[in-house]
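#structure-requests
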Amino acid sequence: MLIYVLIATDRLEEKQEKKLRQNLPELQAALQAYAEANEANQVTLINDCESDDCEDWQLGISQPIKKHIQLNFPVNLFNDLAKKYEIDCEVGYIEDREREPVSYFGKHEGQGEAFLIAEYLGL
C-alpha cells in the first residue's frame, strides 16, 4: 500500500498561515532529509509549494507500507514536526494516483498513533 503524510494546509487561520510560511524552509529541509535517509524504502518527497495561497500547498512524503510497524517512523517524524511547528497533518493512501485521506493528527488534532492509523488504512 502506498501511503502519504502531508502537512495540512487547508482551513488555516491567518496566524497559522503566517507561521507556516515562516517555517516552510525548515519543514522542507526536514522532509527532504527524511526522504534522502529512507531512499532505500522508496520514500518520496512531496513538495509543491509554489502557489501564493498556502491552501494549495502539498508538502509531505509518500511511502510504500506493507506492515503497520512501518508507519512508526513517518508518524513519529510528523508528530515531532507538529509539536515543533504547531501544525496538523493528513495521512491517507494513494490509489490510482488519487489521495484518499483517512486521518488527521498534530497540534490541534492530537498526536498521531501508528497503530490506529494502520487500522484506518486496513493494514
